[in-house]
Write a structure and sequence with these properties.
With 208 residues, the protein is mostly helical. It has two domains: 78 residues, no CATH class; 115 residues, no CATH class. It contains five helices and four strands. The protein has a two-stranded antiparallel sheet with strand order 1-2. A two-stranded antiparallel sheet has the order 3-4. Strand 1 and strand 2 form a beta hairpin. Helix 2 crosses helix 3. Bound molecules: zinc ion (ZN) (2 copies). The site of one zinc ion (ZN) has 6 residues, from loops.
Length: 208
């Protein structure tokens, strides 16, 4: 799609990246797919397809949906509007905001009793490398939407392993149990979203 130089908005590119990441996870069997996560991603992709179709071909995708599925499509659109919010300039599931906040409460990971400081967005080692000269981190992490200086959300593919310097998500380290891992796969109370984090000036770490 990108090579075909169709103009994609940032949000659409994000949806594609999410879809690609999701697909890779499935094909590599790297994650336990929780039913909820499948549904969230499905909603996101459906909404993306609908708006993409609308922009490229005019008209809603719903016009091409057989009558017997119209109600399902309408329900999906409805659910999407209920569950996804605009957060830091992008569309994210509302439960994510809480996870991101909660992840700020886990500054360290432990292995064999040794503490390792997690690396906040923008303080990854590669920013120090020569090839990064002239580059600065985006205001928000492309995967988890952490602001520069904030810790990444649980399972973010950008977070560096503080021990091996590679990707933390799926790294080989035998980390001790941590709230961070729990956040990545537990069930969350989605009702208590903290909207104050949304571009409020105080970062999440300063109000806990
Ligand atoms: Zn991140
Ligand atoms: Zn590691």
């Amino acid at each position: 799609l990108l090579a075909a130089s169709i103009a994609l908005g940032e949000e659409e590119q994000q949806a594609i990246r999410a879809a690609v990441k999701w697909r890779n996870n499935i094909t590599h069997y790297e994650v336990d797919l929780v039913a909820d996560e499948v549904r969230e991603n499905y909603l996101l992709i459906f909404e993306f397809l609908d708006s993409f179709h609308g922009e490229q071909f005019g008209g809603s995708l719903s016009e091409h949906i057989p009558d017997e599925h119209i109600q399902t499509a309408a329900d999906l659109t409805e659910q999407f509007k209920r569950e996804f919010i605009d957060f830091r300039g992008r569309t994210m599931h509302r439960a994510w905001v809480r996870k991101l906040v909660a992840a700020q409460r886990v500054p360290k990971l432990f292995l064999d009793g040794v503490a390792y400081e997690r690396r906040a967005w923008g303080s990854e080692l590669y920013w120090e490398q020569e090839y990064s000269n002239g580059f600065v981190p985006l205001p928000y992490c492309r995967d988890c939407a952490a602001r520069v200086g904030e810790l990444h959300g649980p399972g973010c593919c950008v977070e560096e392993c503080p021990r091996e310097n590679g990707q933390l998500f799926g790294c080989e380290c035998d980390w001790e149990p941590s709230e961070l891992w729990a956040l990545d796969d537990d069930e969350w109370d989605e009702d208590a979203v903290d909207p104050t984090l949304n571009d409020a000036d105080s970062s999440a770490s300063s109000d806990t």
